[in-house]
Each structure stands twice: as structure tokens, then as C-alpha cells.
Fold this sequence. Notes:
Number of strands: 11
Structural class: alpha+beta
Strand content: 5-15%
Radius of gyration: 25 Å
Amino acid sequence: MDGQSCEAFLNASPEHLPRLQDLLKQGTYRPKPVQRVWIPKLGSKELRPLGVPTVQARVVETALRNVLEPIFEHTFAEHSYGFRPRRGAKQALRRVDQLLKTGHHWVVDADLKGYFDSIPQDKLMEAVQVQIADGAVLELIRRMLEQGVMESGKGWQPTEAGTPQGAVVSPLLANIYLSPLDHIMAQRGRQMVRYADDLVILCKTEPEAQEVMEQLRQWTHAAGLTLHPTKTRIVDASQKGGFDFLGYHFERGYRWPRKKSLDKLKETIREKTKSGRPGSLRDIIREINRCTRGWFEYFKHSQNTVFLPLDSWIRQRLRRMLRRRHTGTRRTACRDYRRWPVAYFAEHGLISLALARTPASPAHR
């Protein structure tokens, strides 16, 4: 919001940091408003609000998080995986897979509507005060929550609820506020898996799932949160339909990338294989490989039937681009496959996702 880059702050850090330290010691530090930025929501026409703090604010928030995180970490529940040291999405997915395999196929698939932007700040501060008694630290957190946002064309706006998505300390505060729900579910023997505000509760019977849903409604209402009326549902994962969680779709004992995850990858590949784009085929394939490697690393536990069609689709995109370069036409040519066979793209270094499932294959290496 202040126009200062990370590099500029770093270059002036011998001057900035001592002054910033003095402001914090004296209790006179005031964070500048965050810059409101709206980004597309995957698979939706809706936009997601991000709050981009200044570099100085990020330095302060990082220092604050480094102090608070060890204090709260030992209080968090085992089944909370998001934004915690030595934990991540893959562990959450493994836990879901284990529970499904042990017969917990009735799933309460919960969606907290606008969670980060709707957390009641007074109740959040009460949750923080359970572990933190230092008045200066509490005041610093309160100022961060109330710093407001600057939005183009609208000027400064107050933030009377929530914690900005994009702030360094926000994920930790979000975990602190949902921690009581984690422990309530654990005490009642419920099998909940949570990653930040994404959560599922897996049950063995439909009546149990109905009971859990009612308990969840009661807790969220008391906490000042809202369950999304259409996205929150009970699902029998052993039947057709299933549910999505952390980018995967779970259904009938199998899992594969959810449609939005697959669409996002394809959109990225389309951008890199546009007709008329410059660059050699090897350079373009190198760019594609960078995308598919990271994507595969996360989704490699999907059914192999996902990767064969995707490999074919990527080659078809490349053939279409090459045809345009060689003939100047976009019309489908039946000789494309013979002119540019699978081996041709393999020789140019294109990774095969299907072969990468086999650890001994060259594609894996």
C-alpha cells in the first residue's frame, strides 16, 4: 500500500529495523492498512478478497508469529493439519484415505462461508487471551485486526470482522479460533480432518453423520460463523457422487484430482501451447514439464486412468501448435499422429505422467 518493495526495505533495513524495534518497544507501532486485491476463485465467477500487507507489516507479523506459534502449537489437536510445522495437506489426505478404508464413508463435508473475513474479532481475541497475557502483544494483535483496508476507488475501509487473507499471522489466528471445535469433536469421538477452514468429519453410519451435522451447526452459530447452505452436506462416499477435499475427489474407494484441479492445470497448459507463440519445441516442453512435475507430485496417488488421457491431451495441444506453425491452418489433420508420434515428444523431453507412476521408468527420473 505504501509502494515500498521487499528489495527497497532490505536495502534500507539498517535504518528501518532499529526504528521499527523502538516503535514496538514503546507500543507506538501502527500497522498501515492492507491493500485489497480481488483474485478469481477457481471454478467460480466469484472473486476472493486478499489483503496484501506492507513489507514492514509482514516483518512485524512474522516476528509475532514466531513467538506465538510455539505457545499455541502444543494446544492444537492432532487432526489439524493446515499451516502448522511439519504438517501438510498430504498428511490430511492420508488420514482421510485411512478412515474411508476403515468404513467411515458417511462424510460431513462442511464449508465455512467466508471464514477468514467473518471471524468475530472480539471472540478471536478471547481465544488468544486463553494463552497470552501480555497486554502489549494483545494490543499489537488488535491493531493488526483493526488496521482496515485500502481499495482502489473506495479509499480506506474499516475491518470490523475477520483477519485478512494474505497476512502472515492470519493462518495461525484462524487455527486458534477453530481449535475449540477440534477438541470438542475429538472428545466426542468424532473423526474430523481439518486443513485451515477446509474440514470433513467421517462417520460410520448416516445417523451419526446427521448428529455430527447438528453439533457442527450449533457450534458455528455460537462462534459467529456460517455454514455454506449449499456446499455443506452429508455424503455417502461409497456411492456415486463422493466429495472433494484439498484438491482431490474421493468416491467409491478411489481418488482422483477434482475437476477444478484438472481444469486449472489444463488452462495453464493451454496458455503455454497457444498457436503462434514463440520459442522452440524443447523450450515449450521444458515449461510444460515444470508445471506437470509439481502437479504430479501432489496428485500422483490418483488412479492411473487420470494420467493416460492427460498425456494424450497434452500431446494433442502440442500437435495442434506444430500444425499451425508448419501449415498455417488450425484444421484437424489425420496425419498429425504419424507426423509427430509419442516417441517424437519423448525425444524432445516431454514427461509422461502415466509412466511416472512407475518408479523405475525414465519418466520418473
